[in-house]
Amino acid sequence: MIQMAFGLKIDAFLEKGELVRFKEDGKDTQILFFNVEKILDNYDISENYILQSDDRIYIRTIPEFHEQNSVTVFGEVKFPGDYSIEDSKTTLLEILQKCGGPTARADIENAFIQRRSKEDVVDTEFERLKKMSIQDMTPLEYEYFKTKSRELIGKFSIDFNKLWNGEDSSYDVALKDADYIYFPSKISTVSVSGQVKNPGLITYVPNKNYLYYIEQAGGFSWNPRKSKIRIIRASTGEWLKPTKKTVIEVGDMIFIPEKPEFDYWEFAKDFMGIAAQVATVFIVIKNAVSQ
């Protein structure tokens, strides 16, 4: 049967194969083991079983045989692509040297490496909170949940500038299979979104606050909710309530939400209802006093 299947693959485990066979009742099965190599060499014909109808033969793969481990380098490097590594041995700097390093257009400050192997990035607390409703979380749990939701899972904290320039070798981490290294292009803009007259990208000017960029976007439109303006940091994803002293960083987003619509009719109905209740209470008290 093995010969009819055109022989074995190079990664076949030869020490033990399995033959699964139904018993006479046609329901239960038994497992017969055999040495694949001995059968092929006619060394032990006692395990060269005569096959029966509905027999199933299993020959396993050698664990970790010729395992291919690689990382991906993407973005502003000279030679982006996949690179073979020795798992947990090849270092980040070795791969950066192989790919030619960052280009002149690379934003090395915001480059990152992400670990994608699940066993290394599981956050059991975050997974627990994902299954809960917000109403059931404590304030601290909700803050943790919001923070983790904005983070890139598996992201390393690495100063690529210091690593590439040879200033700090402690950032030269050992890589694992499926790691992802990314060098973004330099950004020279700030995004203004929401209730402004001309939302979009504005050229970044150092040391300017959010009001400068809102003015550059044409100023506020007809219905901005100024008390809820937020700055979304490009580097961290953090949402900040700005002051005039808050300096905008390159790549940040300024978000100006719209005021919620005010339903005057509903307000009038509620007001009249409350007024009627107050009047009723007043009349009851007045009658009680007069008696």
Q: In order across it, which strands form the biggest sheet?
A: 9-8-12-10-11
Count the beta strands: 12
Provide the residue-averaged pLDDT: 88
Overall, the morphology is: flat
How many domains would you count in the coordinates?
A: 3
CATH topology label of the largest domain: Outer membrane lipoprotein wza fold like
Rg over CA atoms: 34 Å
Instruction: Tell me the distance between the termini.
Output: 109 Å
Number of helices: 8
Task: Indicate the CATH architecture of the largest domain.
Answer: Roll
What is the CATH first-level class name of the largest domain? Alpha Beta
H/E element sequence: EEHEEEHEHHHHEEEHEEEH
Q: Major β-sheet, in short?
A: 5 strands, mixed
Indicate the proportion of strand residues.
15-25%
Coarse structural class: alpha+beta
Q: What is the fourth-level CATH superfamily of the largest domain?
A: Outer membrane lipoprotein wza domain like
Q: In percent, how helical is the residue content?
A: 25-40%
Question: What are the low-pLDDT stretches, counting only 5+ consecutive residues below 50?
Answer: none
